[in-house]
Design a protein that fits this description.
CATH architecture of the largest domain: Beta Barrel
Strand content: 35-45%
Largest sheet: 23 strands, antiparallel
Number of domains: 2
Shape: rod-shaped
Number of strands: 28
Length: 689
Amino acid sequence: MKKNVFLSLFAFASFCTANAQSYLGYTPDNYAGVQSVLYNPASIADSRFKADINLFSISSSVANDLYGVKIFDVFKDGYDFDLEAKKNFSNANNGFMNTDIMGPSVMFNIAPKHSLAIYTRARAFMNVLDVNGNVVNELSKDNKTNFDYPVGSPNAVGNSWGEFGISYAAVLFQRGEHFLKGGITAKYLQGVANYHLQGTNINLEFQENVLFPEQSQYVSEGTAIYGSSQDFADNSDVEINSKSRGYGLDLGLVYEWRPEYSAERADINDLKEVNKYKLRFGLSVTDLGSMKYADGIRRNYDLNETITQNEYDNADSFDEFLEDNYDFTVVNGGVKAYLPTAIHADVDWNIHRKFYLNANADFGVVSKTKLNQNSIANRVSLTPRFESKWFSAYVPISYMDYSKQAQVGLGLRTGVFFIGSGSIISNAISKSSRAADIHLGMKIPIYQKKAKDKDQDGDGVLDKDDECPAVAGPVENKGCPWEDKDNDGVLDKDDACPAVAGPAANKGCPWEDKDNDGVLDKDDKCPEVAGPKENNGCLWPDTDGDGVADKDDKCPKVKGTLANKGCPEVTTEVIKKLNDFSKSVLFDSSKATIKPESHDKLEGIVKVMDEYNNANFKLEGHTDSTGNEAKNLQLSKDRAAAVKDYLIAKGISADRLSSEGYGITKPIATNKTVEGRAQNRRVEIILIK
């Protein structure tokens, strides 16, 4: 078996890594079709396809945390892996491999909200965990020297199997902007081949014999459980037993936020050919299950032995080498292999029109120390993409925990063909790549038909739901235009009085005039009481309550009569009262100077005139016949004017007063007696009308 015995024991064929997700960057595409069911079975519900037929597709990836290479140099003639690869040896190196082949498969809609997928699939999955890389390095050398290393407790699993899966997905919830779908995949597993090894406290020492190299010795310690799907020591050809089978399960949910949904576009959820979401959230659990190999064999080996180089070189196979050189006990005859159960989460953002950004995370949820348990390498990725019906381009950017390197890839889809890699760009420029992957496939997509030919009036309501298919109308009115029965310009849906015309400002109803004063309530400041239009529908105020509105009342604060424009009437009694005061006004002899004792009488005149402030008065002066007639005339004028000036000085408006003197011409008594002459010397107050 040459030097490859221990190298195979601990490396299973150079370190390679299983990606967390097959078809990296491709499955989030809304046109990924049946391939998307491998990542999340809910994705096929409400899809862009009537059917999607996969002819053949493959996704394969390798990576590790021990060797770094310039990928394209590996394929050149004369490339020496041991010499040219950059090595990163540690006491716990890891490696994985994944190959995922999808055979003839199909997905299709079985009802508007229900979809089905049937697929065939072949898978090979390999894990090598916690191996001392220094031991691998020593075993790879042609000329070994003495070494002594603790190998530790490595755990290695290699498993290959076939899958037949049936996926069902349906819309679970649809309300307004919120849309939820779920899916489940049940799969039958047919085991093909299995290897698994788990060591405990293994130590390996090499003792070189310089004179006789074939007598050099490998001294090992520890124990190991080694099992396989059949006894390859007796028969190295893989024999598939139909009884080596198992069952698996995938579960998934997808939530979509559809903010463009509105009452006017409620039909958008029924349109299959357009993107409807702004954000999509996916969550799934894949590879729940296991399979049991009916012809499997498992042995517990005691590795506390010393093996010569000659015994090592002469072994024909790894299984034969173990059986011939180490003591063992059979643990059991059946071998159970566990699927690499994982949780996947992704967020897909429709940035604008056909441009998207996808964030994805894949996490293994199984113990990596469990016997015969495959596990994924945890990965996070960010993938911008352009997506259309017949073409997509995507650039996945990812980081995986075992390779500990960022990777940048590129992928293309052209309807019937797709190809991509999650690492092609980074590998093209890196001199120390630890990972490589590729996926490609051929398919026959059958897309959903556009619904525009089913909406002849273009109002967004499909003809099947449109009660007026030839006339555009809103979805709230089942595709019919709103009516306006009273032709007032206010649609009936908004018209509070659809049978009577009215302005839009009053919700289609005519304005009321509750007090019937000719002023509409909308303009009437006193809608419950009738009033003139000039006063905005309110009664004119009458402050003094005399029945004459203030606007017409010359004396708005004093009661009066309508005939006197709201002011009190100046009666004969009032004039008599004024003249009683005026006749008592005394003047100095032969002068127009008012004596002080007459001021009280004058104040009485002022008070009465203030009460009748809209009345105008004439002051007439008179004398007796004693003395010169001409002088008496002038004296009468002066005395009347003196009373007038006094009243004006006390606040009576000059516009209301006039004065005149008549001398001896208008006696009211005889001038022959003292009493008569006294009566004739007077100032009279006359009302001017």
